[in-house]
Amino acid sequence: MPPEFSFLCPLANGLHARPCSHIAEIAGRFQAEANLTNRRNSRVANLKSVLSLISADVLLGDECLLRFAGTDEQAASVATRSYLEKDLQSQEEVSPAFEAKKKSLPRSLRKLEVQTVYGIPLSKGIGQGALVIAVGTVLPEIGKHDPAGNIDDERRKLASARAALRHELQELIERSASETACGILKTHLGILDDPAFMEKVDHYAQQSKTASDAIVLAAKDFADTFTQSKSEYIRARAADVLAVCSRIYQLIYGNDGEKDALVLNGPAILMAEGIDAQVLLRMDRTHLQGIVFGEEQKTSHVTILCRTLGIAAVTGAAEVKRTFHAGQEVLLDGSRGLLLSLTSAVQDFYRKQRAIAELRTEKAGRFATITGTTADGKQLEVGANVTSDIEVKSAFQKGCDGIGLFRTEMLFLGKDTPPTEAEQFEIYASAAKSAGAKSVILRTFDIGGDKPAAYLPFAQEQNPFLGHRGVRLYKDNLDLFLDQLRAMMRASVFGKVRIMIPMISVLEEVHWVREQFEQVKRDLTSRGQAFDVSIELGIMIEVPSVVPVLDKIAAEVDFCSIGSNDLVQYLFAADRGNPKVNHLANARHPAFLRLLRQICVQVKQHGKWIGLCGEMGGGARNLPLLAGLGLDEISMAPNEVLFTKQRLAALSSADCARLVEDALELATAEEVETLIDKFVLNGSERPLIELELVIIESHSKNREEAIRELVDLLHQTERTEDPDGVEDAIWDREATYSTDMGLGFSMPHCKSKSVSHSSIAVLRLKEPMIWEEASTVPVRAVIMLAMKNEPGKHMQVMSKLARKLMDEDFRDQIGSSRTREELVRLLTKDAGIT
Ligand code: PEP
Ligand code: MG
């Protein structure tokens, strides 16, 4: 009798693409016919076809019967059974990296089975709208192409398109820098050669007599089956089949299925693959709520533009296309790096988060009119990076001390011709006027690298970042450069304009630029056009060759600003757009910190002003280092300015200087991170409890809501920058033992790196709640202890508080105190907790 056996699916996500391709690969080694019957739905699948197996919709707990028939049936059965019983589950273990990413989903949403894609935070903000996929082809209607006279011609078209796509996919796999992208491409390759797929396409070709209908009908068949599955993984395969079919269609018929996805008709989250700064600048962004990038990239110009323009963005989220469908309502959380389906729970959660964000911004607003200053009174200007005069105006409204970088090349991109001198003059003059007495650093155009302009002829370059870019373009495009210099200088009569040159590598370039600069001044004078005669000329320090001769260069310029994005990429030889080498491009590595120190010392020796305008300027973790380096200014995306000033006000410049000294002695990036952790831990102290940490009448209905409400209080009062981390730490304790004291009080608590200031937060509940299943007495008040990661203190405060709560009088007083003030007094003065 032919061999057969039963199998019970043990996988939480059912038999999805990866195990299916293993099974198909094993079955394909044998001649014997092999099939699987899913007893739950009676679907029968060919074991040699991934698509057929996926179509059987085998879910967790489904019982399946596997049958083999043919000359080597015994061997086929043994090999398949061995895989299913021994390897299937172990291969399914979720990687720790994925688990870590999953933590970015707020605890309160984790158990709600919200469809989620985990990416990497790129630009803060929360956006919601319909998902628009900026690449990809929409398949045509059935019957769009007339039936061909000869079915063989249609089959030939299909075969050659499949061969072309196979070649294309293989090439893309070889070139792909991202593992996720590579995995997707391999899945597509698998579909292309899948026997069930080929059979179906051929069947419909025979029936309809057109390649077009064959593709559309086959795509529809598989997509319909997959999208009905309960498993998210299997539903996601529909997008893969559609992608393969779309590309085959495109290869035969050209681009006539493509839609102009970048016209947004309503609030939208844009999934952007391969879009560059030009596309973003060219499009109407009125409805743009957020952007998600498939490939991981952090300092490419399109991503910088998102931060500068304040567009919420997430990167490294290639799974978006397979989890969501175009048009689906989604929410993008730029701070956590998430994309979520827009359920009502998600909406509720984010409504609160938005309110907290607004409150935090409002609080930080008091720093808007104060120049960036440390707690001990040392000034460090906090500037903004912008790309237009409109942004200059709004950056000053957001409290910046100056414009540290106006990337003027953005005025040159996304157009068919460059802006004229007159057009530029208008823009720079308007920027200067908005700045009043404050400085605006206009950087001359840095075209090239990942910012090509359509009208400038660029030869094909092997390494565009090492090629014709920035100042290197100016001699060949002298008129363009001089037009810009004239426009900038003329604008200088309206404010404090400074001119900065990008990509300086050698002193000779400074000499050449200085000659042009002086010539333009002479020209303007002879034409009778006014300009600020003391206008400054500065350079960006972003090419490492400048540093060894900085003593010579600093002497000949008026100011310098460090372009950490390029300086990092060139120092570590790590392309800023290549995710594979992102880990090397680390601005906190001792090698880079030493270079920064060298730059600051040399520029200061010449009594010149030194700023830093790369993305490093905006990172909270970088701030103590930057504040200790002796810079005059740091410049960043406008939305970061206020919070940076607020953080700066809590730092001691002397401590920061010591931190830098210590960091310079270290050898590895990891050691620097540990040092910063310690620095943060020893940061300024605040009292354990304050008024804003108390809610007298909370509406929380259960433990989850209460804990989140308390954690939000910490976030609101700047006691944590990572509320989700605190929430997790609290729940880790909750999982080990009950924090319900059984006296109408519960005391959730944690000791965590995510807490910046040890805190006690209190909720008195409007309606008493049952804390957990085993609780007997309803809880009337929740007192949360969230402590920094410092030894000893946690237990000390906990036991003091717990002892106090054993006293009935004290409990009653907490229960009856009418104001927050009374409650705080009870806990501090009476209980002696400070
Ligand atoms: C830099 O390189 O850090 C910089 C600010 O310039 P850009 O990012 O525009 O190259
Ligand atoms: Mg640069």
Description:
The protein is of the alpha/beta class and 834 residues long. It has 30 helices and 25 strands. The strands form four sheets. Strands 5-12-11-7-8-9-10-6 form an eight-stranded mixed β-sheet. It has an eight-stranded parallel β-barrel with strand order 13-14-15-16-17-18-19-20, surrounded by six helices. α9 runs antiparallel to α10 (232-253) and α15 (389-397) packs parallel to α16. The N and C termini lie far apart (80 Å). The relative contact order is 0.07. Phosphoenolpyruvate (PEP) is lined by residues 304, 405, 407, 446, 542, 563-566, 613-614.
Name its key features.
flat, binds magnesium ion, 30 helices, 25 strands, binds phosphoenolpyruvate, eight-stranded mixed beta sheet, about 850 residues, alpha/beta
Unreliable spans are 257-261
The backbone outline, from C-alpha atoms, is flat
Percentage of residues in strands: 15-25%
Distance between the termini: 80 Å
Portion in helices:
40-55%
Strand order of the largest sheet: 5-12-11-7-8-9-10-6
What structural category do the secondary elements indicate? alpha/beta
Q: The biggest beta sheet, please?
A: 8 strands, mixed
The value of Rg in angstroms is 31 Å
Bound molecules: phosphoenolpyruvate, magnesium ion
Number of strands: 25
